[in-house]
Amino acid sequence: MDHIDIEVVADPELEDPVFIEGLPGVGHVGKLVAEHLVEEFDGDLVRRVYTTDFPPQVTVDDEGLAELTHAKFHHVAADGQDLLVLTGDHQAASNEGHYSLTSAFLDVAEEFGCERAFALGGVPTGELIEDDEYDVLGALTDGADREAFEEAGVEFREDEPAGGIVGVSGLVLGLGRRRGLPAACLMGETSGYLVDPKSAQAVLEVLQDLLDVEVDFSELEERAEEMEEVVGKIQEMQGGGGGGMPSEDELRYIG
Amino acid sequence: MDHIDIEVVADPELEDPVFIEGLPGVGHVGKLVAEHLVEEFDGDLVRRVYTTDFPPQVTVDDEGLAELTHAKFHHVAADGQDLLVLTGDHQAASNEGHYSLTSAFLDVAEEFGCERAFALGGVPTGELIEDDEYDVLGALTDGADREAFEEAGVEFREDEPAGGIVGVSGLVLGLGRRRGLPAACLMGETSGYLVDPKSAQAVLEVLQDLLDVEVDFSELEERAEEMEEVVGKIQEMQGGGGGGMPSEDELRYIG
Amino acid sequence: MDHIDIEVVADPELEDPVFIEGLPGVGHVGKLVAEHLVEEFDGDLVRRVYTTDFPPQVTVDDEGLAELTHAKFHHVAADGQDLLVLTGDHQAASNEGHYSLTSAFLDVAEEFGCERAFALGGVPTGELIEDDEYDVLGALTDGADREAFEEAGVEFREDEPAGGIVGVSGLVLGLGRRRGLPAACLMGETSGYLVDPKSAQAVLEVLQDLLDVEVDFSELEERAEEMEEVVGKIQEMQGGGGGGMPSEDELRYIG
Amino acid sequence: MDHIDIEVVADPELEDPVFIEGLPGVGHVGKLVAEHLVEEFDGDLVRRVYTTDFPPQVTVDDEGLAELTHAKFHHVAADGQDLLVLTGDHQAASNEGHYSLTSAFLDVAEEFGCERAFALGGVPTGELIEDDEYDVLGALTDGADREAFEEAGVEFREDEPAGGIVGVSGLVLGLGRRRGLPAACLMGETSGYLVDPKSAQAVLEVLQDLLDVEVDFSELEERAEEMEEVVGKIQEMQGGGGGGMPSEDELRYIG
Predict the structure, then answer these.
(1) How far is A54 from chain B (nearest CA, A)?
(2) Which residues of chain C from 169 to 198 reach within 8 Å of chain D, CB to CB?
């Protein structure tokens, strides 16, 4: 297998598609939003991305079928707006892997004609969010229109996020900017300790506004509960060889 | 030396051979089964596989002869059924190494004409198994026949193994599936704390049935008795581990 | 992106330029000096150096604009002396990365015609420096003129620095010597626990003398006063570290 | 710089030379013996071996001159017997690096026409050696003559060293055997906690016998005392960025 191996599952023509990245990270906010979009609009799988920088691991489904771990691109037809949504269970395992993997993701996005990108994630506050006031912070590349983001409720704060943005989300902006791809990172505030559907909803509300689509939120909390259960089981098993869920290390990523 | 270097020791013609992988992992279940097959049927060494992803290490035999660490393929003529059995002392040391090494292993299996593969291992329960009820869990690629496995006593449970299957065993399925090689992982339940010949025997019983061969267990039973003594001593001393026991790291692999 | 990617921002003709390296390290002494030179003489950015050996990270500026982390070369016209000043936020993440990155830095320095190099850093004493007596230690390649350094106040001590010099600063000398580039490392004594503008000033005084330029220290002194306040606060709180302070890991580099 | 870079310093014709490896390891036994041979017989430097798998580090000599860390080959004319002696301050930093570096070392040995190799090291007993009874254990490749070793006082014990031989010494045997180079590892028993000149002397006595040369031991004890002092100083400085001395990790190697 090559270092990165992209499997073409389908090759639909997309109209003005927007690239949306939601890999695991702080509070699993980005992952929740991305998976919610795929399921809510019944997205079609278009690409599988395998890489030797992912853990040497298969997941086993309810039928007992094993499948090599990979990241997925879905085409999501959302209310007339074509989206290309990236989800998965892992970030890369090395610095170099993050760079090469994100480059490959951006290649796919370019191939489908995406001219805008959103990297979704959470930003940890270290304490529980009170009164359901989940702010959404933003960071942009220079091609993006800051005013439109502010109108959609995105906040830009001088010293935040203090440590910059790491992981695939950071590189979607960093490498995207170098390619001339206008990109934005939307980060829902979250305690950082739990899978956080409320933070995901806050991000989704902003995204809804920016993309001019409408999304049903009702299943978001259920989905978060399921995710939490899986995370819990895996933590119980601990001895049992890693898992489909990100490690504590991976949770450090804003993704 | 190349990253992976395969030494041809012998090149017999095999008839409908089955590839069996048993590298170190949880409870050393897979390793015990594979080594038992090689010894019981007096297997012939056919390939040595060296890789720079193994530790920089030689083993020293009773004559004082040093030999570079490597994985071994034996041809095992088991009761009329040709087997190609992979054993060794190490998993790879890196994500990338796991992928490239397993690819090399599958190349060898293909070269010998294997059209089925079994990855053997243990699945940790976290507690001692009572009443000698060692279940064997299964995971399959889509080419494999689930019913035949169920008839042989293999269990398929919805959420297990929760963390998927990591290491070479996982990739025999994951990469095997991508190559169109029907593969199955047989995982004996084991506490996860000790080398477990009883779990190995449970796996061997299933395998016997699936391959339609007969294996003498007596040496494995002896080993089991020795181990039980060890377990007893360890329970007395409460200290545990060390020596010939696999490290905690090795125990994380289902292999 | 390639492993190392050098972006040409400007290509001025420099006259007898001197290469000055000031990446993060012990007490951030080298970084403080290099950044002070760039700001005091209003340097022009000439190169950005990206590498997959840096963390997968973007910084976010006060406008919310994200930028891929990189090292920077500035042309500094200091009092009639052309300087090529290297600054940044990271050392490499691997042994191999240190070598390839420093090679790339030296290639840029050669391209601009630098025939002398200074690697700036701190050397940890393990205790607070008393009476503002900040000595500056030196190490040289064989092309450099030791007497001139001693006249400028640089000390050469038989057993120091005991552990040699690690990181990019060390390699500027080690690889520089192999290329025939006369190079010197100037190391300000510093406790090693805090960002140390006073140690930076001591290094700057030596550098001023060696390069025959004059530098205004007033902003550095201000910084020193701020730092002293911080030191005071930290001593009160006993907690230490965090925030803008370098991590323990970064402090291990003499840079 | 390439991954491995070999600098030719001199190219003498050697007669039936024997390759002797003494890199840092348990008790620094191998290093002590190799350095003693070089100094006692006033060896000539013939090769410097640089590699990006060594730490990014320069050593600074008493004149303040910095030199990139490297391993050294000396030609030692010992009492009519030509030796090619390898010394240095580091083992490789990765599995892959150990393999490629040892291959490069063996290439140099072959180039000079060495047809025998000795890897020198210590084997840790975990307790202080009493009554100055320092046994020397051996391990061989199949080309070597075990009887001659036994006559020289080398012991071969069934289960020792239990964990095999790791690091460059192990690979001199493992890779040497694969090249058809008769090689032996001589391991002096040592507590494993300290630089051990007495264990080095025991190894040297065996080597003297096997090579039919005579070596003056008087400086060995002095050297050990000096080394002990240096180790002490470095332990005091701790903060000071690594160093010329091997880390605890490196002391795990039998070398």
Answers:
(1) 7
(2) 170-171, 173-175, 177-178, 183, 185, 192
Amino acid identity of residue B252, one-letter, is: R
Q: Do chains B and A touch (3 or more CB pairs under 8 A)?
A: yes
Q: What angle do CA B247, B104, B82 make, to 5 degrees?
A: 90
pLDDT tens for C14-39 read: 999 999 999 999 999 999 999 999 99
**Does A108 reach chain C within 8 Å, measured CB to CB?**
no
C68 touches chain A (CB under 8 A): yes
d(CA A120, CA A24): 10
- Pick the residue of D171, D179, D249, D250 with the most B CBs within 10 A to test the interface with B by mutation: D171
The answer to whether C96 contacts chain A (CB < 8 Å) is no
CB contact under 8 A, A60 and B164: yes
Identity of the amino acid at D62: D
| Angstrom distance (rounded) from CA C91 to CA B62 | 48
Which residues are within 8 A (CB) of C195 and not within 5 positions of it... i.e. 6 or more apart? Answer: C27, C28, C32, C227, C244, C245, C246
Q: Do B66 and D174 touch (CB under 8 A)?
A: yes
The predicted-structure confidence for B58-104, as pLDDT tens digits, reads as follows 999 989 999 999 999 999 999 899 999 999 999 999 999 999 999 99
- DSSP 3-state assignment of A185? strand
Based on the number of CB atoms within 10 Å of its own CB, is C238 exposed (0-12), middle (13-18) or buried (19 or more)? exposed
pLDDT at position B238 over 70? no
Q: Which residues of B touch D170 (CB under 8 A)?
A: 56-58, 66
The distance from CA B214 to its chain's CA centroid, rounded to whole angstroms, is 18
Option in B99, B160, B185 nearest A1 (CB): B99
Q: Tell me, what amino acid is at C117?
A: A
Residues D74 and D61 sit within 8 Å (Cβ to Cβ): no
- Which positions in chain C touch D226 (Cβ < 8 Å)? none
Question: ipTM score of the complex?
Answer: 0.88
How far B193 CA sits from the closest chain A CA (Å)? 10
Continuous segment of H or E residues that includes residue B47: strand B44-51
Give tens-digit pLDDT for A186-228.
Answer: 999 998 878 889 999 999 999 999 999 999 988 888 887 777 7
User: Of how many residues is chain A composed?
Assistant: 255
Q: Does residue A68 sit at the B interface (CB-CB below 8 Å)?
A: yes
- Digit-by-digit pLDDT tens for chain C (255 residues) are 789 999 999 999 999 999 999 999 999 999 999 999 999 999 999 999 999 999 999 999 989 999 999 999 999 999 899 999 999 999 999 999 999 999 999 999 999 999 999 999 999 988 888 777 899 999 999 878 899 999 999 999 987 888 899 999 999 999 999 999 999 999 999 988 888 999 999 999 999 999 999 999 888 888 777 777 766 665 565 333 333 334 444 445 555
CA distance B79 to D101: 46
Option in D99, D164, D183 nearest B60 (CB): D164
Alpha carbons A177 and B94: distance in angstroms, whole number: 32
- Give the nearest chain C residue to D54 (CA atoms): C95
Enter the tokens of residue A59.
Answer: 């997941």
* Nearest by Cα to A42 from A250, A216, A226, A239: A216
With CA atoms as reference, the chain B residue closest to D184 would be: B66
What's the full length of chain D, in residues? Answer: 255
- Residue A241, pLDDT above cutoff 70: no
Q: Mean pLDDT across the stretch A79-96? A: 95
Confidence band of A232 (pLDDT split at 50, 70, 90) = low
Average pLDDT of chain D to the nearest whole number: 88
Categorise residue A195: left if φ over 0, alpha if ψ from -120 to 50, beta otherwise.
beta
**Contact A146/C at CB under 8 A:** yes
Q: Do chains C and B touch (3 or more CB pairs under 8 A)?
A: no
CA-nearest residue to B68 within chain D is D174
